[in-house]
Task: structure prediction
Amino acid sequence: MTELSGEQAAAVTEASTAFVLSAGAGSGKTRVLTERYAVAVEAGGRSAFDSTLAITFTEKAAGELWERVRSRVEAAGGSALSDGIESAWISTIHSMCSRFLRRHALEIGIDPQFSVGSTVELGMIRKRVFDAVVRSELDSLTIANSDVLFRAFGLSGLFLTVSFIAEQVRAMGLRPSDIITCDAVDTSEIRMLLDCLEALCDEYDSLSETQTILGNIAALGGLVQAGRLWLGGSAPIGELAIVACGLKQNRRGSQDVKDIAEQALAHAERLALLAAQYAVKPYEQALVELVQRFSDGYRNERREAGLLDFEDLQGLVIELFELRPDIAVRYAEQFSLVMVDEFQDTNALQMRLIDSLAPNGIVAVGDERQSIYRFRHADVDILRRRTQTASVRHTLQTNYRSHPDLVRFFNGIFGGEPFWPGGFLSLAPGRSDEAGEETTPYRGIPRVSALLVDAAECGENKDADEAALLAEHIRELVDGGVPPGDIAILLRAMTAADLFAGALRDVGVEVFVSSGGTYFDRPEVLDLEMLLRLASNTNDTEALAHVLAGPLTSVSENTLGRLRLSAGKGALWISCRQAHRLPIEEADAAGISRLVEVVEALREGRAGAGLSEMIHEACERLEYDLTLFSRGFEGARAWANVLKLARVAGEFESSSAGGVQAFLDYLELKREIEGRESLAAFAVEGVDAVRIMSIHAAKGLEFPVTVVANLGRAPGRNVASAVLSTSGGEAFLGMKLPAGALVGSDSTETLGHMQAVRAEQEAASAEEKRLFYVACTRACEVLVLCGRTRFDREAESTGAVGWLREAVGFGAPDSIVAGDVAVGYSTVRILTPVPRDCGPVGLIRPALLPEAARVARVASAVAAQDSTSLDCGTRGDYRTTTART
Result:
């Protein structure tokens, strides 16, 4: 056994195979999993590879664990023992399920050669099924009140609502019929509220009569009358809801009038919620029935197409075990040890499967403070419940990743308000304070610093001002000897990533954005889409103008003007084919000639060549690859995105028929269905540049200098009209009373909707705190926090910058001051830099995006036949002298 700490050794040698291992950040849990697996193999030989099951959350984590186990076993027993790892059960839960299903496809009634559908394929099926449900319902109206839902949500909005609820319910291991709604309204509370309102009328009567009081009494009387009529069965509940929502109470006059008016409004608000909830019941039921029909249709369509999705992989294995309990028993007997890593990220459906494989218990490894995947339906309560009921528990509290000063900061900030006082797994430093201090570039740098930027001092683009200030701070770190490659900027959302990257370039620091969901917005992707559009239709003037003006051809605006004038009202493409006859620069003529050859080759195709290969050839002939590589790290990143587009083209051709236009249609569907497609994977080893990535992408990684920025970003508050709350393991549907449900009414808040929204917002806020914890604990040597806040106001109750202010004692207005602040047994350096009026960021050393704006302007002018808008002395800064070898 390799050298382990005491707490690690205790977890490895634990005799029980059913316990919870709570593993703090940087505590070496992967090492424990590796060692426990290796010990099982050493004790049981090669057969232990078949009897030991290890489930991880990502393919990357599974690969890392597999390689560690192989190396560890080989070191202990040689290749004769380690060769058995080829059959080892070390995988993600989806890969494990796929392995089960291929073994038992016939028993469950599916094709053994099944495939998991792509996001686009499955998205197309979902849309097709929803359209069929809508058409059927519009023809027959068999679901009462469905017509109101169609009008209130709109078809696109209703599709998003229905499909999302269906997906959430499946991930919980439930059916649409398991959805619950707010309990039936108790009429006794409505009677009580009406009695209270009548009593307030009497209180008004006891005051001196004024016009204000008479008006308020009349309004209250109308509301009480509407309530009594409904209770007596003489009026619909909708009328009561409308009157209660519209109650007006004038608060002019004495304090007594103000107090009575406030009480009346509070009672009316509660009455409106109850009445609207009573009225919304049939519409909630209609929505649930639509979800049921959609779910049934989606399941049937997938089966007919021979496609599965990731939830199918899990659900079908559960179905297999229920239909054939003998198979379930066989696997339960086979696996004597089941270990589940990142247990905090499991969901209810996955737990049903895991429990059936290990009826006697599992080794659950996780940290509830690192549960950050609610959007993938992870349920942190599963780990909490497992921990509370576990008879055997171990903890890994020693952090070997971070400097002791950082560990003390983590304990100080996250062990108190507003985070987890009394509920935080306190960490112990596993490193020495002095180890390596003499040679480290971090000597003399504050281990934790916070750049608090006064939002009131920022200009119109507050993100840009914050980015500029942070870039100056990072420049100081680099000038002090910190390698740029040691620094990572982590963002909650990648929407501002290009601003932060541009600000760093402005101060001369190399940077690249290593993750994010902006793929289809990238200029290099647009360049190639325009090239393909031109190949599909040479009369597409917009596409041709873009290709000519951009880096694929990079002709001068003077040449573009001549081409436009030569074409007159004719086709610009014909002018390009005859460009050699025009008085234009030789380099431009050569570039246009190459473009014509490339486009014609794409249009004609080449025997045996696929679209993916032809995209590669087009880039090479137009020297697009050299153009991008000449731009440094960002150019390399751009080329990775080009290669990804070529791979997507190859995937399209392997499963679909059609040429260039069919592929363009496929890309449009992919953009619509998948939304924010991630950038291409990009290797960063050996690159001395600051990395910018999302917090989610940084999970499981570590960086010498971690910068957590944009902490003042306001959390999203886009509240849908129908919300499914999954808190507590129940699927609770809350829905506003739809617009049009009552005559002349807009959508109306209901009691159930308010409860569901509150539960979801509380869960989202709790996850935001966990995200902040995950981001901070990526730091090995130095942690920099940066965010905007209004210094003259109280700390924000939601959002990381407000929590940070409260934690360091700056919660009150005008309390923020620069200097050192004690947080627990650590110190935080507070900096309050003031934004300078330095103009837009990212202009001193422009990346690809600013130039893309010029291309769009020029292309628009050419397409609009407006030669006067062209700068005839300008060309795109794309030409490179790099020779192709």
User: Anything to note?
Assistant: Confidence is low (pLDDT under 50) at residues 843-849, 877-885. Residues 200 and 452 are 49 Å apart (CA to CA). The radius of gyration is 32 Å. DSSP finds 34 helices and 21 strands in the chain.
